[in-house]
Amino acid sequence: MIKKIIFTMVRLFFGLFLYAFGLVLAINSNIGLSPWDVFGQGISKTLNITMGHATISVGFVIILINFILGERIGWGTIFNMIFIGEFMDILMLNRLIPISTNFVVSVIMMFCGVMVIALATFLYIGAELGAGPRDGLMVALTRKTNKSVRVVRSIIEIGALVVGYLLGGFVGIGTLIMAFSVGHAVQFIFKLFKFDVSKVKHRYIVDDILFVKNNLY
């Protein structure tokens, strides 16, 4: 039991670190950001905070919205909100990943970032501790509106992109690369590892509360 918990947490945090690493690779490719990162950068510039703290702030607001909409929250959701942003700041503030000034290098960095994000998604979702805030928002709105996942996801990301751009976020060819390639990359990684996301059974915070309650009383 203890070994399983340790393995799950290592998998989760390694996935979160890789996700941050992939995001910073894409950001430092210097040819455009993903829709959510355009939004995060816009918030960062507007509030004069780091990119990582902007990501955390946005994640916190989204989790509140998810909770109001009735979406169940897992420990992985909370850790996703906090640690991806913190890992991003560690990587960016310490300049551990160089900023590209060469277009060919930039494109390579962008695609590497996409593949790292896809691998990270497999790792953290496979930990079965809850979806990330943005994935949770997509699920909650899909359930509430009865619209398709594709429509809801598109509306959310277009909204994040437009608001982020108006706030000063950087939109470029990399934005298009991220928008159209991440889904395909995630699908490729899932297929490579024979990972069926429909069979994932997340454990939520309320499950742990009930477990403790039942054992105490």
Short note summarizing the structure:
By secondary structure, the protein is mainly alpha-helical. Helices cover 76% and strands 0% of the residues. Helix 1 crosses helix 4 (75-93) and helix 1 (2-28) packs antiparallel against helix 5.
Describe this structure in words.
The structure is a single chain. By secondary structure, the protein is an all-alpha fold. Helices cover 76% and strands 0% of the residues. It has one domain. Helix 1 (2-28) packs antiparallel against helix 5 (103-126) and helix 3 packs parallel to helix 6 (133-145). It is globular and about 60 Å long. The chain crosses the membrane at residues 12-31, 51-70, 77-97, 103-127. It comes from Clostridium fungisolvens. This is Membrane protein YczE.
Mean pLDDT: 91
Structural class, please? mainly alpha
What is the H-and-E element order? HHHHHHHHH
- The separation of the N and C termini measures 22 Å
Q: What is the global morphology? A: globular
Number of helices: 9
Strand tally: 0
Beta content comes to under 5%
Characterize the biggest β-sheet: none
Low-confidence stretches: none
Number of domains: 1
Determine the fraction of residues in helical runs and give it as a percent range.
over 70%
Output the radius of gyration. 17 Å
Transmembrane segments: 12-31, 51-70, 77-97, 103-127
InterPro entries: YczE/YyaS-like (IPR038750)
Protein name: Membrane protein YczE
Keywords: Membrane, Transmembrane, Transmembrane helix
